[in-house]
Structure formats: structure tokens, C-alpha cells
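From the methods appendix. Each design record in this collection lists the discretized structure first, followed by the designed amino acid sequence. Records were kept in a plain field format so they could be parsed without special tools. The example shown here is representative of the layout used throughout.

RECORD:
C-ALPHA CELLS (70 positions):
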């Protein structure tokens, strides 16, 4: 999957069932819920800036790698 330098939106990622499965598996408390249309317009870069400091860097790196492999 092309993450477009992390400029891809969360909505675009969640629209792909295989990518949604990765996020749901790694972050079940966050990605099992439904979202407002506004939340889906957030870019991956913006999301990582918001929560990246609270997550283990290894988990973030592994997740990004798995998404890129799709």
C-alpha cells in the first residue's frame, strides 16, 4: 500500500479491509469503533503526531511496515 509519505488519510486506509484488519489487530481499542467523517480525513502523519509519543516505536514501525507491504 502506498502511504504517500504518510499523507494518506485514515479513511483511505480503513476503506481497505486488509489494512483495516492490521489496524484493528494492533490497536483494537481505537479501530473497532465507527468514526465520524471528520476523523477519516486525518492523515496518517497527523495521527502519528498526535499519538505517536504514547505508542511504542516498535509497534508503530511494525504497523507501518505491514501497511506498506499490502
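DESIGN:
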Amino acid at each position: 500500500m502506498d502511504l504517500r509519505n504518510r499523507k494518506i488519510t485514515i479513511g483511505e486506509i480503513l476503506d481497505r479491509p486488509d489494512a483495516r484488519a492490521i489496524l484493528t489487530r494492533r490497536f483494537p481499542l481505537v479501530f473497532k469503533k465507527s468514526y465520524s467523517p471528520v476523523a477519516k480525513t486525518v492523515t496518517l502523519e497527523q495521527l502519528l503526531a498526535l499519538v505517536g509519543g504514547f505508542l511504542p516505536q516498535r509497534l508503530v514501525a511494525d504497523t507501518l511496515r505491514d501497511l506498506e507491504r499490502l
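APPENDIX NOTE: Helices lie at 10-14, 17-26, 28-31, 44-51, 57-69.
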